[in-house]
Amino acid sequence: MQRPVLAVAVDFGTTFSGISYMPVGPNEQYTQLDNWPGATGKLYKVPTTISYRYDEANRTYVPDAFGFAAESAPPILRCSMFKMFLDVAVGAGDRQSVLINPESVRRPTWENLEKTVDDVIRDYLQLLYHHMKLTFMDEGLRSEDLEYNILFTVPAQFEVLEVEKFRSLVKSTGFGAHVISVSLREPEAAILYTLNHGIRSLMPVGQCIVLCDAGGGTVDIASYKVTAHNPATKIEQINVVTGRPCGSMNIDLAFKRFLFEECLDQKWRCYFQTSDGMIHLQRMCKVFSDRKEAFDNSPSTPNITIQVSPPSLSGNNIAAGYLRISRLKMCDLFKESVSGTLECLKEHVDRCLQEGFSIKSIFLVGGLGSSKYLHQRVKQYCASLPGETEVIKPRDAEFAVIRGAIESHQKNLLGADDPIALRLCPMSYGIRVSELWDPIKHDDRLDDHFWNPRTKQKMARNQIKWLIRKVVLEIIRDFYSKLFMSIRIYST
Ligand SMILES: Nc1ncnc2c1ncn2[C@@H]1O[C@H](COP(=O)(O)OP(=O)(O)OP(=O)(O)O)[C@@H](O)[C@H]1O
Ligand SMILES: [Mg+2]
Fold first, then answer.
1. Which regions span the lipid bilayer (predicted)?
2. What is the pTM for the complete model shown?
């Protein structure tokens, strides 16, 4: 007899991860894991952080804790932000920390622990799996009685090779003992959540809706045309999903830059490179992160304050144990994330308008998507658009990916139709549109290039344009050589 199926969805995020699950069957409700080790209270997301300890016997670092429980480990034994290094185009030797001062001086923690980024991802997923399995057992959902069918979401920007690499990492952990699929793109999961929970008048048939999934690492934008509501909502993708690495962690990095470059007295700068100093720095960053999440640019709060750590900290904007950040400065710290999001959004909106669509709604989801300040800025931008565009922050916007993923996974397993009736192929299998700049292959005078802000590496761009240019040149050359040939034949 076949075992009943337990649908599970895993969102492995840059800064936070989540797991949701539900038995497959009619009228079942989903649940999210909320019992994370080290957390004070129920929380639906867990930091994508892992800590290691030294195993004397085997003379190696072994995984110790993950998520909240890892946050109290000394910074030199703790790794985070590793998801964004899962990049097949970047070689092991090139994997340098993308973090700006003071971290740029240091190598990524995992290199000091003699781990590769793949090791760290595998170890993190293994701890996540172990915790999930124990929880399921406690809840009477044993794998002996139920078949776990586990869906992993993947970032919109992952190329086929990256997805494959991620799949093989997942397979090498305990998750690999179950039925797994590594397929649903994060913005797709989020739009499915929005469709299931949105108000239909905000997505009228024939009009366009735009989804902006702004998370910790990246901001992804997707646009869809609504084609039907009856008997079920159907949408068609209008543009290829675009994204930028301008997520909320850029605000945290801007805060650190501000602290180091504009605030701290010289003597403290070195102190924060020490292990004691790093603990104090982490404490201040945590408080800043809370302030960032609450920031609404309200004139009634001209300054925000952060209790400094250690209390004797001195420098500009610091007085009586508090660091003061003006409202204007806060807007400045948000700048990279907000302008990156707006630029990316504008590109999409412009293309939808060019194709003759009117944009009824823009849905903001993800952690940064739930920011009141970002909401204001997107609303300001939309005021300049033709027609009336609503900017909606759906309820529980930060859980849109994980909730959309479990809902669509459940529906798929029950054999329901896919609400996304038309998908655009996100990439060509043949030609990379950007790759690492190779001074032997590429030429500064002829070839386009850009700096990847995520990896801080020079990238060659627009190979397709080069290809077209090359083909056109060949055609012109061919034309002239034939012309000269015929002139020569004529004249002889
Ligand atoms: N109101 C807010 N304003 C700004 N940032 C916020 C807010 N709420 C949460 N965040 C930030 O959002 C991030 C978490 O969001 P989310 O879980 O969507 O990201 P993620 O899935 O880890 O990243 P990604 O989707 O890029 O992989 C954290 O960096 C958190 O500090
Ligand atoms: Mg995410």
1. none
2. 0.84
